[in-house]
């Protein structure tokens, strides 16, 4: 947060009194402000101009900036204000899509909401309080909180509406606020959450296995302690705020030595969640290949049974992810469509295979395996995208696939009329399958023969097919290529925000509140059928104990491996460096085998930066002593510091934010003797001025302009009198 952005004018009593206190009022108050402020279409650069910033943006930010009043209301919460900005962005974007006549204006208002969110994010009072900022960003809000009673009466299902909550980050992803998500402070928070340094459990009401009970031991772990391994002092700010507002602390900094070896919460960390998903998908791919290689048409083998069970566990995991994240967030990651395509192919194979085994039909069994083999078209590319998911080409390919599929669906619907015409003209020789096959051949530039056109209809067949071929080869194909090229260029131009947006989607998508995701496939199947009904009849504490026991029983090798790696990394980053009075001495530690593989040198370098000495960032001097001595006393001579201190920054010197030294300090040495300075600089300046005058005289002479008479540079009395006479 810069000083320029933080220096907002104080609120007037009228504005402060009219500030909204509920999320519902906050959304509509912000909506009214934006409607009044933005009444013309502006692009992003114009919205960021200094004129708009000082006249429009700053007054609105000054009004809606969160205040630290200790009330716990949405007015004092940064997360609620950001939630309101993103909600208004969604509303204006929908208005832009529905009304083309005002689309530029509504789109400008939607971008203005994103700009306000960026400015408001910089008003967070404690930028170093990562836990507090993360708590604000992930806190759940309902759009109808604080709404009047008559508004609630018009809601069909009040309980469901009250439980439909989402955080500012979730709404930002739905709103496609890529510039907001690309902010460095936000990406830093997401990176800390993704790596597991900041830990929290999102609250969801649609979990299959609901386990919201927090054990007292876990609550004690989350509290700050006075030990050396405890989180920094900034964490106490978040805890104090939570205790004052009556909320549980959602975000805390993870310390592997304060948790047990079987910490179930590490299975929710996006970093380990992605690793488990990759291993699960790789095992599924191996079982898929082995099942197709060793097919048995008459009987089902044990390996095929295990593959079917494993695939059902994979399908249950995808279904739970879609149910918890929602369709919009789930399909934001385009590769989830590949997973659903495989699920559809697997279900088709399963039902055909079971029916064939029941009726002892080997032909249908062979057809079922052929359909299953089509799943390789989606599984193998999905495996590659696990390694290249952050590549700009992959991001472009995602957008191009979406563009091509949408264009193909539109063209297919448009060409239904031509297909129906050809079918009716060629009846009974031409069936629907033959007509569709012929149209696909023409669409992919295979052409058609004159005999086919005549066989459909001697008079109208050639005309209809020629028109269709002209549309496909010349117009539609060129349009599709142009659209895909434009999409590729657009993604390449905005590759960095797009990549950061996709990373945010993957991070938040991996954070699951449902305990079902803590079970590794295929153990999630019995957990869903046993523990899900049990959660409705058992007390929360008992349900928590049963759930934790089952998770640790089925995943204890994974939990032990994660804890061992995190403890080794945590210890390696804080060892091997000692500070003493004479200097810095590196402690020689024999590198272990794991440390050698993981890169011991990099851990020591990271430890050097983690144990960096504190640097005083304050101003070089303060007027405290002068104020204490009184205004009538002369200021004392400046004390010489015992150690070199860091001076003011360039901006501080430019704007005179720090007191400058007196002339006597700059021209006298420590022992009081005069020092000759700037002699060479003055001589160089005079020489430069003489060269410029000579160049100007030469130029004016070449242009036919009489140069001014040269003045006598000697400091004589006569010369000075001549200058006075000329001035008269």
Automatic annotation (TrEMBL):
Keywords in alphabetical order: Membrane, Transmembrane, Transmembrane helix
Domain Calcium channel YVC1-like C-terminal transmembrane: start-end pairs: 281-572
Coiled-coil positions: none
Domain of life, per lineage: Eukaryota
Region ranges (Disordered): 616-651, 699-728
Basic and acidic residues bias: start-end ranges: 625-643
Keyword Membrane in annotation: yes
InterPro entries found in the cross-reference section: LHD_YVC1 (IPR056337), TRP_calcium_channel (IPR052971), YVC1_C (IPR056336)
Residue ranges of domain YVC1 N-terminal linker helical in the record: 23-210
Pfam families in alphabetical order: LHD_TRPY1, YVC1_C
Transmembrane regions listed in the UniProt entry: 275-293, 299-316, 328-352, 368-388, 400-423, 460-477, 516-534, 546-565
PANTHER family registered for this protein in UniProt: ION TRANSPORT DOMAIN-CONTAINING PROTEIN, NONSELECTIVE CATION CHANNEL PROTEIN
Name the record gives this protein: Receptor-activated Ca2+-permeable cation channel
């Amino acid at each position: 947060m810069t000083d320029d952005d933080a220096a907002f004018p104080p609120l007037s009593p009228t504005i402060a009194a009219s500030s909204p206190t509920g999320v519902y009022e906050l959304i509509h108050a912000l909506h009214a402000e934006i409607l009044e402020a933005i009444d013309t279409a502006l692009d992003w650069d114009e919205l960021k101009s200094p004129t708009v910033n000082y006249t429009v943006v700053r007054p609105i930010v000054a009004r809606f900036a969160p205040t630290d009043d200790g009330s716990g209301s949405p007015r004092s919460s940064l997360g609620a204000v950001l939630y309101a900005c993103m909600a208004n962005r969604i509303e204006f974007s929908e208005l832009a899509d529905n009304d083309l006549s005002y689309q530029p204006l509504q789109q400008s208002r939607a971008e203005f909401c994103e700009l306000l969110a960026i400015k408001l994010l910089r008003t967070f009072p404690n930028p170093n309080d990562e836990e507090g900022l993360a708590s604000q960003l992930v806190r759940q809000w309902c759009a109808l909180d604080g709404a009047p009673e008559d508004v609630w009466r018009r809601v069909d299902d009040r309980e469901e509406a009250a439980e439909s909550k989402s955080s500012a980050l979730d709404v930002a992803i739905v709103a496609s606020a890529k510039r907001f998500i690309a902010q460095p402070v936000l990406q830093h928070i997401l990176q800390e959450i993704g790596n597991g340094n900041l830990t929290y459990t999102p609250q969801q009401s649609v979990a299959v296995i609901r386990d919201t009970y927090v054990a007292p031991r876990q609550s004690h772990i989350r509290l700050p302690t006075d030990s050396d391994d405890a989180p920094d002092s900034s964490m106490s700010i978040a805890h104090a705020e939570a205790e004052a507002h009556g909320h549980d602390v959602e975000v805390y900094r993870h310390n592997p030595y304060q948790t047990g070896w079987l910490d179930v919460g590490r299975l929710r960390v996006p970093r380990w969640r992605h690793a488990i998903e990759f291993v699960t998908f790789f095992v599924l791919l191996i079982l898929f290949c082995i099942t197709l290689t060793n097919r048995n048409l008459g009987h089902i083998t044990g390996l095929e049974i295990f593959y079917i069970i494993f695939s059902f566990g994979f399908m249950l995991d995808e279904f739970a992810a879609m149910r918890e994240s929602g369709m919009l967030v789930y399909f934001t990651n385009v590769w989830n469509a590949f997973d659903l395509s495989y699920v559809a192919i697997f279900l088709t194979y399963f039902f055909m295979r079971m029916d064939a085994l029941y009726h002892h039909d080997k032909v249908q069994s062979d057809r079922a395996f052929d359909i299953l083999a089509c799943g390789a078209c989606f599984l193998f590319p999905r495996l590659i995208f696990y390694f290249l998911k952050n590549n700009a080409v992959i991001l472009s390919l995602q957008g191009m696939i979406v563009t091509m599929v949408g264009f193909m669906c539109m063209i297919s619907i448009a060409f239904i009329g031509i297909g129906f015409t050809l079918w009716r003209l060629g009846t009974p020789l031409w069936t629907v399958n033959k007509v569709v096959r012929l149209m696909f051949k023409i669409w992919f530039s295979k052409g058609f023969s004159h005999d086919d056109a005549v066989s459909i209809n001697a008079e109208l067949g050639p005309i209809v097919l020629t028109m269709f071929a002209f549309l496909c080869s010349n117009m539609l194909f060129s349009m599709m290529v142009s659209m895909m090229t434009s999409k590729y260029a657009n993604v390449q131009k905005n590759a960095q925000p797009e990549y950061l947006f996709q990373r945010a989607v993957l991070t938040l998508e991996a954070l699951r509140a449902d305990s079902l995701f803590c079970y590794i496939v295929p153990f999630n199947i019995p957990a869903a059928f046993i523990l899900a009904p049990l959660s409705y009849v058992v007390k929360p504490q008992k349900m928590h104990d049963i759930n934790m026991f089952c998770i640790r029983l089925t995943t204890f090798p994974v939990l032990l491996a994660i804890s061992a790696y995190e403890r080794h990394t945590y210890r390696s980053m804080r060892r091997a460096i000692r500070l003493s009075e004479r200097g810095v001495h590196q402690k020689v530690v024999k590198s272990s085998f794991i440390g050698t593989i993981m890169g011991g040198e990099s851990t020591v370098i990271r430890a050097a930066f983690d144990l960096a000495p504190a640097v005083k960032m304050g101003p070089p001097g303060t007027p405290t002593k002068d104020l204490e001595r009184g205004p009538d006393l002369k200021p004392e001579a400046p004390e010489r510091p015992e150690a070199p201190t860091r001076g003011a920054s360039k901006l501080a010197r430019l704007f005179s934010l720090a007191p400058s030294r007196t002339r006597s300090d700059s021209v006298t040495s420590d022992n009081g003797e005069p020092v000759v300075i700037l002699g060479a600089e003055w001589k160089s300046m005079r020489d430069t001025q003489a060269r410029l005058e000579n160049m100007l005289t030469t130029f004016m002479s070449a242009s036919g302009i009489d140069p001014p008479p040269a003045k006598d540079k000697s400091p004589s009395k006569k010369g000075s009198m001549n200058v006075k006479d000329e001035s008269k």
